[in-house]
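REQUEST FORM: STRUCTURE PREDICTION
Request ID: SP-0412
Submitted by: Lab K.M.
Chain count: 1
Length (residues): 169
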Amino acid sequence: MVALAVLAILLRVAVPNFSLLLVSNRLTSDINNFTALLNYARSVAITRNQLVIVCPKATSSNACSTATDWNPYELQAFVDVDADGDWSSGDVLLKTITALDVSSAPTSFVRGAGSGNLVFGTVGYAMAAQRLDIHAVKSGDSAYESKYGRSICVSVQGRALVIPYQGNC
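STATUS: Completed
RESULT:
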């Protein structure tokens, strides 16, 4: 009986910490996947000497979605052969990553207001600086969201930098 009581106490302490570890690992994985996509897109833009766009894929086609909430969308990188700023039949799809998995922990992935698609030019520069915020969601708990959140800043030089949630880019 004493052993069961001790085990019950240990489980009561360990289970909440384990769930927070899962949230932290999921956040890290999502950020790493997205920054890898950005770095790959930038590299291809330099190598091919063409524009490369990273954007959320629209639900029914490869066109870019205009939503600021990127959470429910697959993210894609493609060579914009005709330089029209969106997917066209002649463009070359490079890579697509799945939408964020929100089954174990609700997550938000939002690009900064007023920002468009991420476009890398022929020498790897971004056409505009961008900020994307990704965080675990817990209703009414902004401290939780700050602790389990990061901002991804893409500079005009095309470099992606991960900083604390809603920090200054």
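NOTES: The first strand starts at residue 52 and ends at 56.
Reviewed by: T.R.
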